[in-house]
Amino acid sequence: DPTEEEQGPEEIGARHILISFRGASSASPSVTRTREQAQALAIQVARSAREEANDWVALHREYSDEPDSPEGGDLGVFPRGQMVRAFERAAFRLEVGRISDPVESEYGFHVIERTR
After folding, report:
1. What does the DSSP assignment read for 50-96?
2. What is the mean pLDDT of each successive set of 10 residues along the chain, which is 116 residues long?
3. What are phi and psi of 58, to 5 degrees?
């Protein structure tokens, strides 16, 4: 039987919103929320992102803690093995157009939308 990686695509497209917390890897000194507060906010952002009336780019602008992030958190197309493991596993499992529940990595909580 093929592994999960062998069954899926070799590359995908995605964008994300990163909600960081105090002590997370690469967190800005201005980020003061706790891990629990970041998780709660990420849950709220994921819910909002799933509502048709909400604009992903506007949500990214308002909530993402990723410095120098591209517009809307667009990561473009990337192959397996390029992203941190937790992020990659969640992103590659999503169907195109779907938005993940919050995914925790050493950088904080990611809300991911698969774009391709």
Report:
1. HSTTS-HHHHHHHH---TTPPGGGEEEEEETTSS-HHHHHHHHHSPT
2. 65 98 95 98 97 92 92 96 96 97 98 97
3. -65, -40
Rounded CA gap, 79 and 104, in Å? 20
**Residue 41: which of 111, 94, 90, 113 has the closest Cα?**
111
- pTM of the predicted model as reported, rounded to 2 decimal places: 0.91
Instruction: Decide if 104 contacts 39 (C-beta within 8 A).
Output: yes
Q: What is the pLDDT of residues 14-40, one digit of tens each?
A: 999 999 999 999 999 999 999 999 999
Tracing tokens 């917390």 back to the chain, one arrives at 21
28 C-beta neighbours (distance < 10 Å), count:
12
